[in-house]
Amino acid sequence: QITLKESGPTLVKPTQTLTLTCTFSGFSLTTAGVGVGWIRQPPGKALEWLALIYWNDDYHYTPSLKSRFTITKDTSNNQVVLTMTNMDPVDTATYYCAHSPEYPTTYFDYWGHGTLVTVSS
Amino acid sequence: SYVLTQPPSVSVAPGKTARISCGGNNIGTKSVNWYQQKPGQAPVLVIYYDNDRPSGIPARFSGSNSGNTATLTISRVEAGDEADYYCQVCDSRSDGLRVFGTGTKVTVL
Q1: Of the partner residues B33, B99, B101, the one whose CB lies closest to the CB of residue A107
Q2: What number of other Cβ atoms are within 10 A of residue B38's Cβ?
Q3: What tens digit of pLDDT does each residue of A22-67 get?
Q4: DSSP per residue over chain A, as a string?
Q5: B43: DSSP letter
Q6: Quick one: pLDDT at residue A106?
Q7: pLDDT at position B91
Q8: Of the candidates A46, A63, A105, which has its C-beta nearest B90's C-beta?
């Protein structure tokens, strides 16, 4: 059974760096084809894909935000970490991590419950 | 960047058919996935690769994709189908950009 869970701060100040961790079980990020992605959703708004890392260390970021992102994986601890620099109130959103079973065509078949991050001074 | 446009809302009576469009430039050349999201919950994959259903998703959900429009069809709509629906593609020509649509609120009358 595949499960994912997001963790990190619920409140960050503007200009600070946000670090989110996705801890997963039921699959390995050493298995060919597998990836883990991050998606966010501002309150009342649409989903926005942010970043994705695959078993082979291939990674992608959404172009408009890529200068602020770093995505890494820790296969020993079954975790994927997303770091976002220079946080702004517009980054207030629920952040989800999700499992992607096939490379390179991506769909997300298992999602975490999400974690709400508020950016405010 | 690649843009996917959906109607903001669709209303349908129970037992009828709902069709949700997803417009994008030559979207027919890409694989389209669809997600259902109920209030306060994470999205759930309902269609992948245009018209494949994950296990546990009823056959009432189907998809099609051609030209500049992909469509999610929900047959014999039930009250439990009321939710937001999002289309999503992978644009391999844009460094693997993954894109979600603008979302459609389906209301069951």
Answers
A1: B33
A2: 13
A3: 999 999 999 999 999 999 999 999 999 999 999 999 999 998 888 9
A4: --EEEEES-SEE-TTPPEEEEEEEESS-TTSTT-EEEEEEE-TTS--EEEEEEETTS-EEE-GGGGGGEEEEEETTTTEEEEEE-S--GGG-EEEEEEEE-SSSS----EE---EEEEE--
A5: -
A6: 80
A7: 75
A8: A105
* Chain A residues in contact with B98 (beta carbon < 8 A): 37, 49, 52, 60, 62, 106
Q: Do A108 and B43 touch (CB under 8 A)?
A: yes
First to last CA, chain B: 36
Query: Which amino acid does the sequence have at B67?
Result: G
Q: Does A46 contact B100 at a Cβ distance shorter than 8 Å? A: yes
Distance CA A105, CA B92 (A): 8
- pLDDT at position B48 is 96
Residues of chain B with pLDDT under 70: 92-96
Contact B43 A62 (CB under 8 A): no
Q: Do B43 and A96 touch (CB under 8 A)?
A: yes
Within 10 A of B89 (CB to CB), how many other CB atoms are there? Answer: 25
How confident is the model over A60-118, as pLDDT tens digits? 999 888 899 999 999 999 999 999 999 999 999 999 999 999 887 789 999 999 999 99
Spatial CA neighbour of A40 closest among A16, A61, A17, A13: A61
pLDDT on residue B96: 64
Q: Measure B69 CA to nearest chain A CA, in Å.
A: 18
How much is the pLDDT for B1? 79
